[in-house]
């Protein structure tokens, strides 16, 4: 006497929250194209996961770590969706931003100390009116990371967090972790962690010659 | 029109004993009387035989342990205002009738609250929760409601004729006329209002004065009552001062609960919330402790506000016993139900940008939120500024770094390789901020790409100005 219509197994397994490890059924990850074809090809869903936290761990300033996110951010601002920079370490330079295709009317910067920065980032993510929130929070702890991940889920926004490469060993709830490093005068991007990625070997991508 | 009147006979007493709960027999002294007369007593004191109107000496003789406090009209007024704020959720027209009554027009909101019995029940329940003894009545005439609230609790007379009939039976002493007038009329042999109503008007005016006749007209609804509508204030600032110093956070919880409830009442009236408020404790020697209570989202629930304030307060170490407690909420953001498409999924809190912007500014200050504008200037420092992005200016064709340093710094160690350059930038001679530099895109030993410059004609003295991040 089951009054509730019971869905069949296939329907249940169709739920995006259920991940089945099989070759023919790729998990559905809603993603925002990174604008880098070779990187998109490696990422589940083909880009930055939406409604999730992505971490970019970089060794030094000036390796092209920001170049990695610019195409996606530019695409968002062109769709008139807000992009927020939280506590950037330097002045975002308008000529380069404009050259990257960013519509400056939809880019905002929040200048804040570290605790206020984590709070603002969470607020922006949770609000539901921001396309992407990009933060520079060097000394963030696991609990705050988890809060950001939950906020990104609830607001369905793209959270991008820049952290020093030294934090790569730390545990993180982020859906995607990329490491930007340099060797032989070229910049490489390594996928450290990616939710829903089938291959276990980390692909290394050459980004900047 | 249906006017409901709420009277709070215990208001003066609650106001004077707001800071600390009374324990044992307590009484209130009337400050106006030349003799010191008891104005109100609690049940304990009443059990000892202390009555209203006794003088202090007599009361002390009956009950030596009696705790006495003077009336505090300012606190009474604050408490009445707070109650008005709470009542504001039931009616758009609320009027304070000092010292201890509130009138509200409920005719317009009866249908919303499913009629008077349901509304009355909600009023009683809410006031009971807050611990305010009250009586109420409702009639089409405000003055009559006020009179009946004192003499016939719970009476509701929706039609005008009924009110006039009931008024006719009312003893003169309860009519709201000044006591001198009542005594005079009783001396003439009148007992009830109905007998007065039948008197010829000129005669009556001669005996009880124009004011008396006006009052009777207002009772019967023959003269309109002009009642000022109370408006909820735009911020909240309330302070309770203690008679004795309170040590530790535990004894502060009672006054704190009162304050947060009062804040919640105002929020209900404004249909708003509070996201940030400050608790200020005053200690001896002018010391103060400030505790900021900030929330992720605006709140309006009394219990929640109290819990939040309590946790913050308990985590704070107080340098000395406290003399007073104050809550200051300067910003009460209006609660706006988000408007959106029927089919658009709601994301997160469902805020729009102006609301989020407002919320961030409230916490971080106006200067913390900035936008970046492109300026048509060849000097690198001036090509970008904080401000509202205006007309579209085409960016320079040459490659520019995403990060600019606030000011150029000497580059240490010197670049490992030059990738592009030089690009001579020479500009600004007309406004005194002359710049003449050769810019290069360089690579450091770590593989970083930087934007650095040399003074023209030299080969060392690299200055770092940006990162190609």
Q: How would you describe the overall organization of this protein?
A:
The complex is a heterodimer of chains A (209) and B (469). Chain A is of the alpha/beta class and 209 residues long. Chain A has one domain (46-208): 3-Layer(aba) Sandwich (Rossmann fold), CATH 3.40.50. In chain A, 26% of the residues lie in helices and 28% in strands. In chain A, helix 5 (114-127) packs parallel to helix 6. Chain A is globular. Chain A starts with 8 loop residues before the first helix and ends with a strand. Chain B is an alpha+beta fold and 469 residues long. Among the domains of chain B are: 3-158, 3-Layer(aba) Sandwich (MutS, DNA mismatch repair protein, domain I); 245-329, Dna Ligase, domain 1 (2-Layer Sandwich); 400-467. Chain B is 31% helix and 26% strand. Chain B contains 13 helices and 20 strands. In chain B, the strands form 5 sheets. Chain B has a 5-stranded mixed β-sheet, with helices on both faces. The longest helix of chain B is centred in the middle third of the chain and has 20 residues, at 201-220. The relative contact order of chain B is 0.08. The model of chain B has no long low-confidence stretch (mean pLDDT 84). At the A-B interface, strand 5, helix 4, strand 6, helix 5 and helix 6 of A face helix 13, strand 13, strand 14, strand 15 and strand 16 of B. Strand 6 (107-110) of chain A pairs antiparallel with strand 13 of chain B, so a sheet runs across the interface.
């Amino acid at each position: 006497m089951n009054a509730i219509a019971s869905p069949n197994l296939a329907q249940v397994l169709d739920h995006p929250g259920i991940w089945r490890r099989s070759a023919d059924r790729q998990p559905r990850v809603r993603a925002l194209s990174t604008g880098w074809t070779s990187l998109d090809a490696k990422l589940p869903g083909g880009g930055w996961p939406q409604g999730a936290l992505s971490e970019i761990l970089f060794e030094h300033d000036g390796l092209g770590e920001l170049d990695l996110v610019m195409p996606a951010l530019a695409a968002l601002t062109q769709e008139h969706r807000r992009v927020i920079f939280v506590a950037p370490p330097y002045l975002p330079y308008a000529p380069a931003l404009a050259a990257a295709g960013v519509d400056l009317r939809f880019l905002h910067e929040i200048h804040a100390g570290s605790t206020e920065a984590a709070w603002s980032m969470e607020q922006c993510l949770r609000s539901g009116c921001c396309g992407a929130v990009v933060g520079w929070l060097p000394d963030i702890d696991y609990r705050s990371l988890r809060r950001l991940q939950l906020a990104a889920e609830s607001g369905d926004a793209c959270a991008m967090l820049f952290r020093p490469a030294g934090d790569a060993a730390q545990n993180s709830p982020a859906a995607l972790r990329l490491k930007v490093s340099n060797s032989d005068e070229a910049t490489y991007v390594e996928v450290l962690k990616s939710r829903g990625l089938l291959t276990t070997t980390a692909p290394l991508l050459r980004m900047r010659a | 029109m249906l006017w409901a009147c709420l009277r709070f006979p215990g208001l003066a007493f609650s106001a004077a004993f707001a800071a600390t709960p009374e324990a044992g027999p307590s009484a209130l002294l009337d400050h106006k009387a030349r003799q010191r007369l008891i104005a109100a007593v609690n049940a304990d004191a009443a059990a000892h035989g202390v009555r209203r109107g006794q003088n202090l000496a007599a009361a002390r003789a009956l009950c030596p342990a009696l705790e006495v406090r003077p009336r505090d009209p300012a606190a009474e007024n604050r408490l009445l205002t707070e109650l008005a704020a709470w009542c504001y959720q039931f009616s758009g027209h609320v009027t304070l009738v000092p010292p201890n009554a509130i009138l509200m027009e409920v005719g317009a909101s009866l249908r919303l609250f499913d009629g008077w019995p349901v509304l009355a029940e909600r009023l009683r329940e809410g006031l009971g929760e807050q611990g305010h003894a009250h009586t109420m009545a409702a009639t089409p005439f405000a003055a009559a409601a006020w009179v009946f609230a004192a003499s016939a609790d719970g009476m509701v007379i929706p039609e005008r004729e009924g009110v006039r009939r009931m008024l006719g039976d009312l003893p003169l002493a309860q009519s709201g006329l000044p006591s001198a007038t009542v005594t005079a009329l009783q001396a003439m042999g009148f007992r009830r209002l109905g007998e007065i109503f039948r008197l010829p008007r000129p005669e009556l005016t001669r005996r009880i004065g124009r004011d008396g006749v006006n009052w009777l007209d207002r009772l019967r609804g023959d003269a309109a009552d002009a009642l000022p509508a109370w408006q909820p204030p735009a911020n909240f600032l309330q302070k309770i001062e203690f008679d004795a110093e309170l040590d530790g956070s535990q004894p502060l919880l009672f006054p704190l609960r009162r304050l947060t409830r009062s804040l919640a009442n105002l929020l209900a009236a404004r249909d708003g919330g509070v996201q940030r408020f400050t608790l200020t404790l005053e200690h001896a020697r002018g010391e103060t402790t400030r505790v900021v209570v900030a929330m992720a989202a605006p709140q309006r629930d009394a219990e929640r506000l109290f819990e939040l304030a309590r946790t913050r307060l308990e985590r704070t170490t107080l340098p000395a016993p406290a003399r007073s407690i104050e809550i200051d909420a300067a910003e009460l953001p209006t609660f706006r139900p988000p408007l959106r498409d029927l089919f658009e999924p709601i994301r997160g809190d469902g805020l729009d940008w102006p609301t989020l912007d407002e919320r961030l500014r409230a916490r971080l200050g106006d200067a913390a939120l900035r936008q970046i504008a492109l300026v048509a200037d060849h000097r690198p420092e001036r090509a970008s500024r904080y401000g509202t992005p205006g007309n579209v200016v085409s960016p320079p064709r040459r490659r520019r770094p995403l990060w600019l340093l606030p000011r150029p710094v000497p580059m240490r160690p010197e670049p490992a390789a030059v990738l592009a350059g030089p690009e001579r930038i020479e500009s600004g001679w007309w406004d005194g901020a002359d710049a003449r530099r050769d810019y290069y895109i360089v690579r450091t030993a770590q593989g970083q790409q930087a934007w650095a410059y040399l003074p023209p004609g030299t080969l060392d003295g690299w200055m770092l100005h940006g990162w190609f991040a």
